[in-house]
Write a structure and sequence with these properties.
By secondary structure, the protein is α+β, with helices and mostly antiparallel strands. Helices cover about 20% and strands about 25% of the residues. Strands 1, 2, 3, 4, 5, 6, 9, 11 and 12 form a 9-stranded antiparallel beta sheet that branches.
Length: about 240
């Protein structure tokens, strides 16, 4: 459903928002079965841990089926249209994967999804299993998408952040199975450690607005809502000076 103005404000201010509504149970189960089936059959591309266990399947758009149904789901697009406008593209070369966090995984990878606010996207985490403090709920630093002057997008051992106390403000965001969490891609966040004996399965998607200044189709972007519009002021220009 579309977001209320108050919800849009919270997203802009805090850098994250629990989207209203959630996926139907039937879709959650279908997605879990599809992920586990590709893990069992080692359908490439996959990522393995040091023990050789598959912890991620990549390129879910390219896998088709229920994954594309999810990416095009009105449950997601109706909400993020309030953030991105009516013309939305899905990004194939950022996120576009499903992650399986196994029991006993301790590391917390604090990061941003992009380097610069000028190339920002909306990241949507889709929880296929309940996410809680025991099995590693998502950790976020509210408002950190507005922080300037932080180099890189991985912050483990970052001296500047450790001295500032920013990371002391990190909070956990538990989510139900089928829940949807939208994150400003400049927000500092990461998955918490999984202290349980079970798993925590999720899918991460990336969306952004159609670039109205780009008149060349990018094969790594998929139009999922609206149209590709072009508004460059070089349309109909007769000489170089018309571009300025």
């Amino acid at each position: 459903m579309p977001l209320r103005p108050e919800q849009v404000h919270l997203f802009r201010y805090n850098g994250f928002l629990k989207l209203p509504g959630q996926l139907p149970d039937e879709m959650v189960e279908s997605l879990k079965e599809a992920v586990l089936d590709d893990i069992r059959n080692e359908v490439e591309p996959v990522v393995k841990d040091r023990e050789g266990r598959i912890t991620r399947i990549s390129f879910i758009w390219e896998r088709g089926g229920v994954f594309r149904e999810l990416i095009n789901s009105p449950v997601i697009l109706d909400s993020i249209e309030s953030l991105l406008g009516p013309n939305i593209e899905f990004i194939r070369n950022r996120h576009n994967h499903s992650t399986l966090r196994l029991g006993g995984q301790e590391s917390v990878y604090l990061h941003r999804d992009v380097l610069q606010w000028t190339r920002n996207i909306v990241s949507v985490i889709v929880y296929l299993e309940e996410s809680n403090l025991e099995n590693g709920s998502t950790q976020i630093v509210p408002g950190s998408h507005l922080l300037p002057g932080i180099e890189g997008n991985s912050f483990k051992g970052n001296e500047q952040l450790e001295k500032s106390g920013v990371l002391d403000q990190m909070v956990a965001v538990p989510m139900p199975a089928g829940g949807l969490l939208a994150i400003d891609s400049m927000l500092i966040h990461g998955a918490g450690p999984n202290h349980s004996a079970g798993t925590r399965m999720s899918i991460t998607l990336g969306y952004h607005s159609v670039d109205e200044l780009l008149d060349v189709e990018n094969e790594k972007r998929v139009l999922v809502r609206g149209e590709r519009v072009y508004g460059g002021n070089d349309r109909g220009a007769k000489k170089q000076g018309d571009y300025t």
